[in-house]
Amino acid sequence: MNKEIILSELKFKAVRSSGAGGQNVNKVSSKVVLSFDMMNSSGLSEKEKEYLNEKIANRFTLEGILILNCDEDRSQIKNKELIIKRFLNLITNGLKKTKIRRATKVPKSVKERRIKQKKNTGLIKQSRRKPEI
């Protein structure tokens, strides 16, 4: 993964934010929309593209374009920085290999401790009963 090439391929669009905010919302386009065409990216190898397509396929459109929005801040520049960080985090986490889980045997001491605890709670409950006459 070549970050410089990927960052140069990003497309940004400034849009008016939705929601409350008074007159500022009506005048300023502070919301930033990032779009990234993964299939035509030269910053990712073919294997990386396939791996991303498997891991985060639900985030891509049918054309293979990733679209992210950010309208957390009133500043367009801060929103752009936030969306770039979020994008890079998403891509790097998507490229991480997941560890294969290997089943392990439950240790004997753990089993013994569990049975001892069960017997102890059984004795406590037994001592609460009314005595048989």
Automatic annotation (TrEMBL):
Keywords: Hydrolase. Belongs to the prokaryotic/mitochondrial release factor family. It holds the Pfam family RF-1. It comes from the Bacteria. This is Alternative ribosome rescue aminoacyl-tRNA hydrolase ArfB. Its EC number is 3.1.1.29. PROSITE patterns: RF_PROK_I (PS00745). Residues 102-133 are annotated as: Disordered. The gene is arfB. Residues 16-32 form the Prokaryotic-type class I peptide chain release factors domain. One of its GO terms (molecular function) is peptidyl-tRNA hydrolase activity.
